[in-house]
Automatic annotation (TrEMBL):
Record-linked Pfam families: TauE
Organism: Hyphomicrobium denitrificans (strain ATCC 51888 / DSM 1869 / NCIMB 11706 / TK 0415)
Membrane topology: Multi-pass membrane protein
Lyase listed as a keyword: no
Family from the record: Belongs to the 4-toluene sulfonate uptake permease (TSUP) (TC 2.A.102) family.
Protein name: Probable membrane transporter protein
Subcellular location: Cell membrane; Membrane
InterPro entries named among the record's database cross-references: TM_pro_TauE-like, TSUP/Inactive_protease-like
Keywords carried by this UniProt record: Cell membrane, Membrane, Transmembrane, Transmembrane helix
Cellular component aspect of the GO annotation: plasma membrane
Keyword ATP-binding in record: no
Transmembrane intervals: 15-39, 46-66, 72-91, 103-120, 140-166, 178-202, 208-225, 237-256
Length: 264
């Protein structure tokens, strides 16, 4: 029942929300491992479908805040997200048919790759005035469509928000500054998460009560994460490096567990 309190789901959601509030994109990648190995969800597919619901709603809350600060490049964000929705629909359909343990093993590998990207990614100032219009469409549109569909495909396949992929994808396509890429990426995270959640829900692969408690925890964790981020703003780079290490460790654990399960 919806009102049967699930402490592990709530605490897991709190952790994901806290990390998202603290350092931004990347935190949602912890949702599936937490649901499988902490909450105890037996089916990797249900964990993916359930986490997609939570990630989409959490991203929507963040998008509202960034939009109020005028940190969203709407034309670029909408085109990227539209292309990504097609990719997410295809990716989530493929993910549902993929062996659950194989999917977890690949997920662990992806986490290690994400950790490496977070450590070695380059910071760039970018062009704050970039805008998708009739003049720039010839150069920007193909890159937005190509990058968006590719990121959406991976997001749907693994059931993740994909913010850590959308941000560099947007920056590579448009040369927009990081702060605008973060805000604009949330349009895609909402769209990809909703598409993946809908696709999994059609197959009955979403645990709605579990998702509700995960979201409640995420809201609470996000509040504290954003407050701590403000206090530790000068050390955000160090926090990102520490979190990358945590993702690498969790990803390695998922790989080992997945390999053991495949070995029987």
């Amino acid at each position: 029942m919806l009102f049967s309190f699930d402490p592990l789901a709530t605490l897991s959601g709190t952790l994901v929300g806290f990390v998202l509030g603290l350092i931004g994109g990347g935190g949602s990648v912890l949702a599936v491992p937490l649901l499988v190995y902490v909450v105890g969800v037996q089916s990797p597919h249900i964990a993916i479908g359930t986490s997609a619901v939570a990630v989409a709603l959490s991203a929507l809350a963040g998008l509202i805040g960034h939009a109020r600060q005028n940190k969203v490049k709407w034309p670029c964000a909408l085109v990227f997200a539209s292309a990504g929705v097609v990719g997410a629909a295809i990716g989530s359909s493929l993910g549902k048919t993929f062996n659950g343990q194989h999917l977890l093993l690949l997920f662990g590998i992806l986490m290690v790759v994400i950790a490496a990207f977070m450590v070695f990614k380059k910071r760039a100032d970018g062009n704050p005035d970039v805008c998708l219009n009739k003049t720039s469409a010839k150069s920007l549109l193909p890159l937005l469509l190509f990058n968006g569909s590719g990121v959406g495909l991976m997001s749907g396949f693994f059931g993740i928000g994909g913010g850590f992929l959308v941000v560099p994808g947007l920056m590579a396509a448009t040369d927009m500054p990081l702060i605008f890429a973060i805000g604009s990426s949330l349009v895609s995270v909402v769209a990809f998460g909703t598409t993946t959640a809908f696709n999994y829900a059609l197959s009955g692969l979403v645990d709605w009560p579990l998702a509700a408690w995960f979201i409640v925890g995420g809201i609470v964790g996000g509040v504290f994460g954003r407050r701590l981020a403000t206090a530790l703003a000068p050390h955000k780079s160090l926090l990102t490096q520490v979190f990358a290490f945590i993702i690498a460790v969790v990803g390695s654990y998922v790989i080992v567990r997945g390999w053991q399960n495949l070995g029987g």
